[in-house]
Design a protein that fits this description.
Blueprint: H1 3-16, H2 19-35, H3 43-80, H4 86-96, H5 112-126, H6 132-142, H7 145-152, H8 155-165, H9 171-184
Helix pairs in contact: 8-9
Length: 185
């Protein structure tokens, strides 16, 4: 336990906090407990780490198989149409056998729930409503997470977020538009 950090917090709670501040502390503790699973495990963190481990184990195999299939398709096309321009060949291959760089967000293996959570976190940060602990965890895990998220969002999501943060649309319209966008990609 880091006593340099915990004692000032405990002193504030026990000796200086008013009723509203105590209510805020109580709500934060309840939220923290709600995020934890049985036995004090952070289920979300365990799931993320497991997902990364599995992705790392199978990622190389998938890339190898995709490359083999793409090369086979190129050979077949060139055999049947030897005069095809390279630009057209690349367009066909990218349409038929997309790489991670040419696929949409949901095709990249990012489940819709994860995209929604990324959008929620980004918008909460943009409106000053992101929990300080959650923001610190994101910064620790990803560094400049806001830029990373922004670059991963498809352009229609970016446009909708811009409109919402500029108060051009209300929350209900924002939610409906995001749902529609995610259904279309």
């Amino acid at each position: 336990m880091d006593t340099n950090r915990i004692y000032p917090i405990l002193d504030f709670i026990l000796n200086h906090a008013d009723a509203d501040e105590l209510a805020a502390v109580k709500a934060a503790l309840a939220r923290r407990e709600k995020q934890r699973g049985y036995g004090g495990l952070d289920i979300g963190n365990v799931a993320r780490e497991t997902s990364r481990d599995i992705e790392g184990q199978i990622g190389g195999s998938i890339d190898s198989i995709r490359d083999m299939i793409r090369n086979f398709a190129v050979e077949m096309i060139v055999k049947e149409a030897p005069d095809i321009p390279e630009e057209h060949l690349n367009q066909l291959i990218n349409a038929w056998i997309p790489t991670p760089d040419t696929r949409s967000m949901t095709e990249k293996g990012v489940p819709g729930e994860v995209l929604l959570e990324m959008i929620r976190q980004f918008v909460a940060a943009g409106t000053g409503q992101l929990d300080a602990g959650e923001k610190a965890a994101l910064e620790k895990e990803f560094g400049d997470w806001e830029e990373i998220y922004w670059n991963r969002f498809p352009e229609p999501v970016r446009k909708t977020i811009r409109k919402y943060l500029k108060n051009e649309i209300d929350n209900e319209m924002f939610q409906a538009m995001i749902q529609q966008i995610l259904l279309s990609i």
